[in-house]
Known about the structure:
The chain is an alpha/beta fold and 259 residues long.
Amino acid sequence: xxxxxxxxxxxxxxxxxxxxxxxxxxxxxxxxxxxxxxxxxxxxxxxxxxxxxxxxxxxxxxxxxxxxxxxxxxxxxxxxxxxxxxxxxxxxxxxxxxxxxxxxxxxxxxxxxxxxxxxxxxxxxxxxxxxxxxxxxxxxxxxxxxxxxxxxxxxxxxxxxxxxxxxxxxxxxxxxxxxxxxxxxxxxxxxxxxxxxxxxxxxxxxxxxxxxxxxxxxxxxxxxxxxxxxxxxxxxxxxxxxxxxxxxxxxxxxxxxxx
Length: 259
């Protein structure tokens, strides 16, 4: 697929940039399809260790494109289901990415854009960033993105955010758990780079399995998860990466993935 609404760059660190800066990087059918494709390809890229999502210009993502909203207003129920399914598939493609995903929130993240940030494993934001779920102000609700917001802040807090539709600055967003860290605009890239560096010190397969471990534990019963954990640690210990990591520690050398 040839991308028109996004930019995809990088090999070990793959950066996906929402690239409609003149209108604050909103979603429409084209961008949704392109992001779905980009996330799926990043997940299959063997060299990729980290995925970063950001926005061009002053905003991260302003939510829904106005022209897209006008079209949605004329859709039938069946057409709206098809449209919402397309958006859901994009978020599923992001959720299926095995490597760590970082949202580099350079500006406003509203509506679906706020959901995109919440769906990432890490959210690092500029001090000038704002976030909010404004759907209720339009008589709508944040249906497709709600699982990712609930995962991040819990059901009670998510309900409060959805009901009020209030926008928050970066510091309050961090207190609420929507942002993991904030930085001055000029330090945002460097802050994200430090996080990427920390991620890259870990074994590539171990990092993927850690992400899978946490997600599995959140959705599985205790006894079933206990058995999952036993098998997970046994497999990684027996893997070439696990064996080299332990040997490197004992021999006081760098493991192969850092060499």
